[in-house]
Amino acid sequence: MKILFASSEVYPFSKTGGLADVAGSLPVALRALNTDISVITPLYKCVKDKFSVSDTNFSYNIPISSKFEVAKIKKIYFKEVPIFFVENDNYFYRDGLYTDGTKDYNDNAERFIFFSKVIAEFSLSNNYDILHLNDWQTAMAAVFLKKIYNWKSKIVLTIHNLGYQGVFWAYDMQLTNLSWDYFTPQLLEFWGNINFLKGGIYTADAITTVSPRYTKEILTDEFGFGLNGVLKDVENRLFGILNGIDYEEWSPELDRYIVQNYNEKTITEGKRVCKQDLLNSFELTPETKKPVFGIISRLVDQKGWDIIIDALENILQLDVKIVILGSGQREYEEKLKTIKNKYKNSLGVYIGYDNALAHKIEAGSDFFIMPSKYEPCGLNQMISFKYGTIPIVNPVGGLFDTVYDIDESKDGNGFRMKNYSTEELIEAIKRAIKLFKEPLKLYGVRKKIMKLDFSWTSSAKKYIELYRRLVIDES
Ligand code: ADP
Q1: Measuring CA to CA, which residue among 223, 231, 156, 244 is closest to residue 195?
Q2: Pocket flag, ligand 1, residue 376 (CB < 6 Å)
Q3: pLDDT tens across 229-247, in order?
Q4: Distance 42 CA to ligand 1 centre (A)
Q5: Which pLDDT score, from 0 to 100, does residue 450 have?
Q6: Which of 266, 274, 273 is nearest to 294 (CA)?
Q7: How far is the CA of 146 from the centre of ligand 1 (A)?
């Protein structure tokens, strides 16, 4: 069984969020289980400037409306997995992946129609048995392969976040070179616009999301982003497989970014040292006896920033330290800076993207705050477990599947808000502070959560099972 995994970002080459983590580690886990898997992704500036890629014999002339754009395919091996990069400097040699730092590139429809066309061509050239697409940036490949080429191999489409669908104005149809006959509610049309993800959902052989709970939630008005009806239509081929964590990257015993490595036995001392270092990094007074709450998150509505901002001053008055790493919506950045000015010794804010600092926060915090409005899977709560850092969450999607309340369940591994509100966030944080004041109990919880296993192996096995089922259905 030959598989091609297509993603618009792949860690460590390119990353804006969890998709990159998945694309950088699921193929490696599949390879470790003897799967013949390759990855295809754009050759962005950040990759081209940093990694040396080799040439291949593959090159395509891709029609985009009335012109042709060239795609050269380059290659690198990453942990034994062949990674194929699509080179076209007009589209991909830019500072950002999707945005210029403030707003989306205005040719994103064209860039990812191009990428999807290349994925389709490359799949045809190499006779894959399975093409595994991810999110809207690759979804149109399913439309091209199934509708134009009548491709018989199977296509899996994973939705990592239904909030992002690749919706563009109808006239971008011309970039696809598809006939307007395909612009129907049963394929690409969505309230008068073109919707790439919708096209992918209707043409893929299986659709997956990244947690079982999210798979159910997206069928509702509340979480369906207008596609719940479409997803209902394909419910019989919709599956939920929880993401895993790459413990080579995220483990306090191996972590290269933290000042002191630690394990279950040495956590108390390890965390104390990492905490001191973390507070220093944020130029906060290093009072390690106070609980430290960490947040690493895109500053977008999804992640619960309205209630975090609303609760922040109340929480800071509880004699705690809070460190925040994130970037995104300008209004949240501004509000955080204003509150920071008022609480110089207890609030640390770093606006930007910084992988090393993310590691320091996981290791040096006592608790991790993640009150998402919706959360397809969420990686940071699982990463936090490994570092003995106790998550505080709004239990939706993957957070519902992975975090159980310490005060309510014998399997408790974190704190759950009872609903999405400022009051509930503060309430959950107060319960966390209470736990922090009981060192024996705190140690017990830390030891327990560090042992939890969210490695990729069991998820990878579920994907293999799905691929097999699809291929067997065919024969
Ligand atoms: P999402 O994909 O919705 O952003 P996830 O929890 O699934 O959320 O994954 C987020 C990933 O991105 C994690 O690995 C997290 O540490 C990382 N991340 C998010 N924001 C930043 C940032 N500002 N700096 C460094 N890493 C970040």
Answers
A1: 231
A2: no
A3: 999 999 999 999 999 999 9
A4: 20
A5: 98
A6: 274
A7: 33
